[in-house]
Design a protein that fits this description.
The complex is a heterodimer of chains A (412) and B (316). Chain A is an alpha/beta fold and 412 residues long. Chain A is built from 13 helices and 18 strands. Chain A has a single domain (5-112, 147-403), classed as Peroxisomal Thiolase, Chain A, domain 1 (3-Layer(aba) Sandwich). In chain A, strands 1, 2, 5, 8, 9, 10, 11, 12, 13, 15, 17 and 18 form a twelve-stranded mixed beta sheet that branches. A two-stranded antiparallel ribbon of chain A has the order 3-4. In chain A, strands 6-7 form a two-stranded antiparallel ribbon. Helices cover 26% and strands 24% of the residues of chain B. Chain B is globular, with a radius of gyration of 20 Å. The chains are: A alpha/beta (412), B alpha/beta (316).
Chain lengths: 412, 316
């Protein structure tokens, strides 16, 4: 018999606030974090709004001092600060004292952020290449970009997680996949406690610029720029954040008297094997991920689906059809309408929104949905609604066709 | 768990594991701004041989192309839509050439960035599909698309001693029934100036591009015995987690195993970062198939975070 996996702690650094209770209050009261970008001057960019998490210079200085990484790099690549903040919270919420000595870390991260000031300083227009590897600026220790292994190591150290470490780069599916991988370690007996989640931020000139260029971002500079399933939806909004859950073998959690918030009942993953630029037009990969997830969870009665729901025309239509084909008619919400798209961290943040079904008895909504696209017709949760069911499901679909679905149940 | 076949694309050539019998040719790069003086490049090959549609090459970065070339060496069983795919992936594959147009229009003469100009004009000079060249997971996605792999997956960032994780994960997927068979491997293409700027300092071995992908299934000629945890520990402690007694041959990722006659992987294929675990497995398969005295092979990976050992042996 395989071990059961409990969730016994949560840490969140998000545009809707820090900590699970602040996040819960904001999600359930229909707040939206989308606002003009403050991280850099984006006035000439194709998209000028984002969902930004609280971020201050003291955290940058502290993280740089703790890790030995360069302050400018830590300021531009915001996922390190957000990841450290959320990971520490999750450990503190699960354990009264220090983390277990064998705490493992299953981590999803986003793309390295190019430090454009460094690249510009090193660029030689005559050769159209870097003129040197060393910056002419004194004191810069980590030019061009922060290495992801350095970020992963910094989060592991900050959280006190010296056990096994796995870093997953599955684009927008990373957060969900990190939790599924951590849960699999516990089921197999390879770990007893796993800190699992993700951190990412694309709120920087290259992030906003590239996604705008792809046509993935809404050009509207309004709080309701990301409106999944809406008739007039025209793209997503860049978000950022980090979220971690403490996964624990159920017997271990009970033995130490921990509060069990929910149980990871199962999960599934699939690859579209179609195109890197677009999801499969019939949602074939999404269907397989959900089908595998439900089978692994023992086909519980699903009372809520937290959709990937990006607000892009194609994704939303395909996902609704896939949900209906696999799960049937079920209440659906997209937290990206409030949080924007936090990319690699999206799945971890949305898992926390899904967790509200069990900790607060409420299903997280889609906001700004005042005119549903007939092709996205469904039982949309537009105001926080009482949850009814045995389990809830959360979807994450990544650029390139990597899909992951997780199924949560209430505390056993 | 067994390794049925391996495909390789590295400085020694493109083919199955036998290309590793040839010593790699490390050339001298014309990159005077870097300290590195030798690099390992994959010998020229026709990329169109390995893709189903020529236009997909436009969306592939170098690591993706090498991963597809390696995977294409394998004869796959049926059932790809349920099969697993687990790859070690490296740093973003962005080339400075992709940014040149943006920098030409968004940079003051003193070398500082003009953000307003970048938004107004510079971004228009970027290729619209740039994101698909820089996302770290693209090698996995392209292998999936080209070979029709649709099952469980993971793009694992393990550039150092943990580069063997993709094999452990693939073996678990098959052993648990999560997938009927799986591809495990790794790919990296660090020979661009953006990555060289981060990696060449103090590197006393040739940096190299490469990829290897193996077919894992419940039958095959080479048995995968497992991978130890990667943590601060002695080599013998790590070895004891997966193998009783000393292996016939050692392969070293990272520092050579003094006194144990290990083959330093970087001497064969260069320092291939996220591809090193996969190329070490390919070399192990080559030794087990070509050297009668090699009944078991241990792969020792060491870095600042710890030591781990994987072991393989010739089946029955």
């Amino acid at each position: 018999m395989t071990a059961r996996v409990a969730i016994t702690g949560v840490g969140i650094a998000s545009p809707l606030g820090d900590g699970y209770e602040a996040f819960a209050e904001a999600v359930l009261s229909l707040r939206c974090a989308v606002a003009p970008i403050t991280a850099f001057d984006a006035r000439t960019f194709g998209a000028t709004v984002a969902a930004e998490a609280p971020f201050d210079e003291r955290e940058v200085a502290r993280a740089a001092a703790d890790t030995g990484l360069d302050p400018l790099a830590v300021r531009i690549d915001r996922k390190l600060v957000l990841g450290v903040r959320a990971a520490r919270q999750a450990v503190e919420s699960a354990f009264a004292g220090p983390a277990p000595a064998d705490l493992a870390l299953s981590l999803g991260l986003g793309l390295e952020v190019l430090l454009l000031p460094d690249v510009a300083a090193l660029y030689d227009p005559a050769t159209r290449d870097l003129a040197a590897r060393r910056l002419p600026l004194p004191g810069r220790r980590n030019p061009l970009r922060l290495r992801l292994d350095a970020i992963a190591h910094a989060i592991a150290v900050a959280a006190g997680a010296p056990g096994r470490l796995r870093t997953l780069l599955s684009a927008c599916a990373s957060g969900t996949q990190a939790v599924l991988e951590g849960a699999a370690w516990i089921r197999r007996g390879a770990a007893r406690t796993v800190l699992a989640g993700a951190a990412d931020s694309m709120v920087n000139p290259m992030g906003v610029g590239c996604f705008s260029l792809l046509g993935a971002l809404s050009p509207r500079a309004r709080a309701d720029a990301c409106r999944p399933f809406h008739r007039d939806r025209d793209g997503t909004v860049i978000g950022e954040g980090a979220a971690f859950v403490m996964l624990e073998e159920l017997g271990h959690a009970r033995a130490r008297g921990a509060t069990v918030l929910a149980e990871v009942l199962g999960g599934g993953a699939s690859l579209d094997a179609f195109r890197v630029t677009a999801p499969h037009p019939t949602g074939e990969g999404a269907r397989r991920a959900m089908t595998r997830a439900l089978a692994s969870a023992g086909h519980p009665r699903i009372g809520y689906v937290n959709a990937h729901g990006t607000g892009t025309p194609l994704n939303d239509r395909v996902e609704i059809a896939a949900i209906h084909a696999v799960v049937g008619e079920v209440p659906i919400g997209s937290t990206k309408s409030q949080l924007g798209h936090a990319m690699a961290a999206a799945g971890a943040l949305e898992l926390c929104a899904t967790l509200l079904c069990f900790t607060h008895g409420r299903s997280a909504p889609t906001v700004h949905l005042d005119d549903v696209d007939p092709e996205c017709a469904a039982d949309h949760v537009t105001a926080a609604r009482a949850f009814s069911g045995d389990a809830a499901l959360s979807n994450s679909f990544g650029f390139g066709g990597q899909n992951a679905t997780i199924v949560l149940g209430g505390p056993p | 768990m067994f390794i049925a076949a391996v495909g390789v694309a590295c400085a020694s050539g493109v083919g199955d594991e036998r290309v590793l019998a040839q010593p790699a040719d490390f050339d001298f790069p014309s990159l005077p701004q870097f300290a590195l003086r030798r690099v390992g490049r994959v010998p020229p090959f026709d990329p169109e041989r390995f893709v189903t549609q020529r236009k997909s090459l436009k969306r592939m970065n170098r690591a993706s192309l090498l991963a597809v070339a390696a995977a294409r060496q394998l004869a796959l069983p049926d059932g790809g839509s349920e099969a697993g795919l687990f790859l070690g992936v490296g740093m973003s594959g962005g080339e400075i050439a992709l940014l040149a147009g943006l920098l030409d229009t968004s940079r003051h003469p003193d070398g500082t960035l003009d953000l307003a100009a970048m938004g107004r004009e510079g971004l228009a000079h970027l290729h619209p599909l740039l994101s698909f060249h820089v996302l770290n997971n693209m090698p996995l996605c392209h292998v999936s698309i080209e070979l029709g792999i649709g099952g469980p997956h993971a793009a694992i960032h393990a550039p150092g001693g943990e580069a063997l994780q993709a094999f452990a994960r693939g073996a678990e997927a098959v052993a648990s029934g999560e997938a009927p068979w799986a591809l495990s491997g790794g790919a990296d293409a660090p020979l661009n100036t953006l990555t060289l700027a981060l990696t060449d300092e103090d590197l006393d071995r040739p940096l190299a591009e490469g990829a290897a992908v193996a077919l894992l299934s419940d039958r095959g000629a080479i048995e995968w015995l497992g991978l130890s945890e990667h943590r601060p520990q002695s080599i013998d402690a790590a070895r004891a987690e997966v193998l009783e007694g000393e292996p016939s041959r050692w392969i070293a990722i990272g520092p050579a195993l003094a006194g144990r006659g290990a083959i330093p992987l970087h001497q064969r294929v260069g320092e291939t970062l996220a591809a090193s675990g996969a190329l070490a497995v390919a070399l192990a398969v080559h030794l087990l198939r070509s050297d009668p005295a090699a009944a078991t092979v241990g792969i020792c990976a060491q870095d600042a975070l710890g030591t781990s050992v994987a072991a393989l042996r010739r089946a029955g």
